[in-house]
Amino acid sequence: MTAVHPEDDNLLRGPPELLGEFGEFGGRYVAETLMPAVEELARAWPQAWTDPAFVDEYRAILRDYVGRPTPLTEARRLPAAVGGGRIFLKREDLNHTGAHKINNCIGQVLLARRLGKTRIIAETGAGQHGVATATACAYFGMPCTVYMGAEDVSRQALNVVRMRLLGAEVRPVTSGSATLKDAINAALRDWVASVADTHYVIGSVMGPDPYPLMVRELQRVIGDEARAQILDRIGRLPDAAVACVGGGSNAMGLFAAFVPDKAVQLFGVEATGEGLQGRHAATMAKGRIGVFHGMRSLVLQTDDGQLLEAHSISAGLDYPGIGPEHAHLHATGRARYLGISDREALAATELLARTEGIIPALETAHAIAALPAVIRELGPEAVVLVNVSGRGDKDMHTVMTHLDPATLSLIEEAEQGRKAARAAHQAAAASGERKEGT
Amino acid sequence: MSAGVDRVTAAFARARAEDRAALVGYLTGFDPDRAGSRERIFAACEAGLDVLELGVPFSDPAADGPTIQAAMTRALASGASMAGSLALAAEIRQRFELPIVLFSYANPLVSFGPERLARETAEAGVDALLVVDMPPEHAEVLRGPASARGLGWIGLVAPTTTPARRARVLAASSGFVYAVSLTGVTGAPLDASDAGLHAGLATLRGASSLPIVVGFGVRKAEDVRALARHADGVVVGSALVEAGQRGPAALGELVAALRGGTRRV
Ligand SMILES: Cc1ncc(COP(=O)(O)O)c(C=O)c1O
Predict the structure, then answer these.
(1) What CATH number is associated with residue B25?
(2) Does residue B186 form part of some domain?
(3) I need a labelling partner for A403 at 20 to 30 A (CA). Which of A100, B83, B189, B261 fits?
(4) Count of the separate structural domains present in chain B
(5) Predicted confidence (pLDDT) at residue A9 exceeds the cutoff of 60
(6) Residue A123 among the catalytic residues
């Protein structure tokens, strides 16, 4: 794994006056109160990332605690179902906490310690980034506050329990649409007031510079490992790399290693939800350039510049913006972005489970669902690398209600059986009492 | 009568001549609805505002506290738009001579188009722009066309701002410079007699010849009184929005009381 790429001028871009922009995207659109902190981060990040002691500590934790390197699994039975190809699955689902998010959290909490910060805040949508941040904070013994939209608190109750178990404080956010974007607003408001001692761990390649760059670098371990693994396995690079895109961190982590390899096609997969005419999270297809959450990027918004609420069945893709580097890769044509609906993602969840014995996160299922289109285009001989960004345990409730009426009816039957048994038990007890009474 | 940045400058000169700080009042357009906000803004102007900060609502006001967030949510729910906000500004301008500063976030303004924004705000009688999430590094896209039409650009200096950044903010500012009183969002609690705050204002005064206007957390006449000697103007936002929820009369009373606190005696 090569963590540091000095040839990458975006990484070592010098003084903070030079704003981290990817083409016409990126920047630091934050309140003046936060600008000095953002500048401090922009200075500290390249120093840390070129400091062998920092990088060694980060790598050692990824190895000994997170469980890296994650395997590269060649799919055995999936190709027959998606039109062919050789398909390699990068197994980020096997990371500690079950998704790629932890790669970023470990790095940022390490950086926060280096900066002398004593408190961590984060936002979370599905709860995966919140759980990963809470985990990193438990590991380092740092207090942690996670902002989560009130809607998501009820949709993702299990992850709320996980965060609390890990010692984090979860603050439900009721303002705005009470979802991920509002959780980010709330975290920014906390940070404006607490910036002296607090580091904000943003969970994707978004927000003001240097976050998009820093989070990409902390996630590029995905692509660096996968690149070496596939070269080792088949002696050549893949024809395509595919990943789902919410804010875009698992995709950027994968893509980062392949951007210079022009022969490798890059496909990001965004959520078209109920369809582009209905509620969706298709920022590439339907977004317009805007300024949101500290960055200039593509944004789902009204003609009047107000944010639209995004929708996806996967809470992790349910975001009306996208990281600026993706907007840049899109604008330059280096990466292409496909859309997958809620229904297609659900079907792909089942497909991967049954063909490979891997239950993916609903976010990841979007990438799986895009494979037929990718292989149709590249041909049945194509070698395709897919990032399995996370495992599906967190989504079982959603999957159960949407996908599998049979499971539901099994549970209902069991529930009725339990009620009947309890009623019988109570009736027996009551008649026992009556007997005692007489 | 002057317009644009000159009108802003004149308002501070007038207040200074009267040996008082200028009272700058923030209200969100279309809160609670169009007619209701016009009535409230008129009442506040009549009761003695020196400068009006007119908020154009944004769906995601990440630098604002709960009071102004809620005001923006109400405004959007009652149909606020960029064009509607400018029409409202034009109505205020027909009735009042005070400078109008248009306050918003980058996205609605950028989305409207920088040239169009500069032209239509100037035509509506707006005198300056204040965009909280547009630091000087990014400001030129809106500031350039606005300056070309004589509009002011209100930069912000926060307690966290370094001397190097302060110079950058000041170089981009015209009309006045906004001194954020506290490290936090609008509406947070403020100790207006804090010596550190006063010292910060003195430092800023030493670094700029622009009027210095202090805001965030100012609620009462006694807060205004405590700050009047240390700044050229004092901004009251969340407290006005809250008073406005009790109606135009309550808002007018608060403005009159605050105005009483501006005298430097
Ligand atoms: C498993 C998984 N994949 C993907 C995402 C989307 O985030 P990103 O686009 O930053 O990778 C999430 C976010 O919660 C996630 O949990």
Answers:
(1) 3.20.20.70
(2) no
(3) A100
(4) 1
(5) no
(6) yes
